[in-house]
Amino acid sequence: MSQRVRSFAPGRVNLIGEHTDYNGGLAMPMAIDLGVTVEGVRRGDLVRLRSSEVPGDAVVPLRPAEITELEPPWARYVAGVVAAVDPDVGLIGEVRSSLPIGVGLSSSAALELALALALGLEVPCREAARICQRAEQTAVGVPCGIMDQLASAAGVEGHALLIDCATLEIEPVLLPEELEVVVVASGEYRRLAESAYGQRRAECEAAASVVGPLRDATLADLASIEDEVVRSRARHVLTENARVLAFAAAVRRGDLEEAGALLRESHASLRDDFAVSTPGLEALVAGLDSVPGVYGSRLTGAGFGGCAVALTSPGALGDGWRVRPSAGAALI
Ligand code: GLA
Fold first, then answer.
1. Is there a contact between 306 and 299 (Cβ–Cβ < 8 Å)?
2. Alpha carbons 200 and 204: distance in angstroms, whole number
3. Is the dihedral of CA 287, 188, 155, 326 positive or negative?
């Protein structure tokens, strides 16, 4: 028997809390009103998908092998999801995206969640996020954290999500109506697999092997880390966790000036202590911060290129994607 399905999953933008997820820390992303739709018929023993954005069909058997070698490259994400969801029926259909692909708005997490639902995955959103995180890791061989998939799975309209990545507890935080969230691309293309993402994660693990879980460490503890680079990576994680809490508090009391200042501090820490900014991102963020009506901006996502997020008063920025906090992935 064949069954028609249609699912939608949003992309995400992270407001603050970068490179904290894989350190059991805090992050505050929001799902956005751009995303990926998967539509098709569940039948047969293959997943065969056409994309409206990317050339080449993804054709994947139900027991995919050598996933990181598949062509076209987007078939690797499809295969990662098929391997992680392990459906008993295939899917013939189409993928459409209103998200720009590969700029840092988690088009891959949106594809993973939408496809997982279309393949019949029926689990609570935390579990769906974990399954899709595994799919992403399998597809690209990058030890990514859970933030992108969890934001896409658990989005709440009008709210950002304060996520405790140690427990996966989520507290939705209402964003003021008059606050605009604008994403601007740096024009620098990035692929996590070719970036120092894995190296940063290893540096954080090196720090944790000296001081214990970074979530519980204090700035004073970091003095016992001999390697200066490792110490500064850990310092970013500790100060960023504190900034996430301060940011959530500032947003709750409507103090947007303070929220913006925390974004700028986060950016400086990502540049100076975590070393994931680039000349293009520096120029972009400096330009955004100088525009009247911009409370603050910073690089968002992993860095190494990608995009910046700015919090602004209405209409302050002409360029970029003005995104709204939106609901999470669902069958439609
Ligand atoms: C990428 C990863 C996330 C997270 C961010 C940095 O988006 O997929 O898990 O680690 O980088 O905050």
1. yes
2. 6
3. positive
